[in-house]
Write a structure and sequence with these properties.
globular; Double Stranded RNA Binding Domain; SHC Adaptor Protein; alpha+beta; four-stranded mixed sheet; 2 domains
Length: 191
């Protein structure tokens, strides 16, 4: 497994890096035997230390967690406990509802744009109709089933997930609704 352990305006020592690697290895081996990459970032927010971790698995799952504490090691432990809980839930759902995936998740690429908000003025009515692109990047779009997309959305902190439906290859969206439920948009069924 590849590790990327860094600190935002913090010096991360070798002892902390070794601790993070050993603890994450132990957690991942318990639930998922094929991790690919772990990104752990430490930062300071006011008087608290913050640990944010993202774990990528070969099944396509991306587990994200964060932890806060007054010291750096307890912040990591809080983050690790949340990752542990997510991986445990993921494994239970796979065991209960889904068979083993016969092939790895395939990822396509898609363009992602961030549009700048504009202030409306009476003089610039024509200009305000055209949004300004302030960032353009490429994003990965997994080809997974709806159940796996819902599972990944529940395990992550994202508000929506765009994916290719494994059943028919069309682009679908699952999202968190304001009432706490999960919505699913399948344009193929809109006829």
């Amino acid at each position: 497994m590849r590790y990327q352990i860094s600190g935002r305006q913090l010096d991360i020592g070798d002892a902390l890096q070794t601790h993070v690697k050993s603890e994450l290895n132990e957690t991942v081996e318990k639930y998922a035997q094929r991790p690919t990459e772990a990104v752990v970032t430490f930062s300071r927010k006011a008087h608290e230390m913050v640990c944010e971790a993202t774990l990528h698995l070969s099944t396509g799952l991306t587990a994200t967690a964060s932890g806060k504490a007054t010291e750096i090691y307890p912040a990591f432990e809080a983050c690790r406990e949340r990752l542990d809980k997510q991986l445990r839930r993921h494994k239970r759902r796979l065991r209960d509802h889904y068979g083993r995936r016969s092939r790895p998740v395939e990822f396509g690429t898609g363009q992602s744009y961030i549009l700048a908000a504009t202030e409306e003025t009476e003089d610039s009515e024509d200009d305000s109709l055209q949004p300004v692109v302030i960032a353009e990047m490429e994003t990965r779009v997994p080809e997974i089933s709806v159940g796996e997309a819902v599972m990944q959305l529940e395990l992550s902190a994202q508000k929506l997930l765009v994916f290719r439906n494994e059943g028919h290859g069309g682009v679908n969206v699952v999202y968190r609704r304001e009432d706490g439920n999960i919505g699913w948009i399948d344009p193929r069924n809109s006829k």
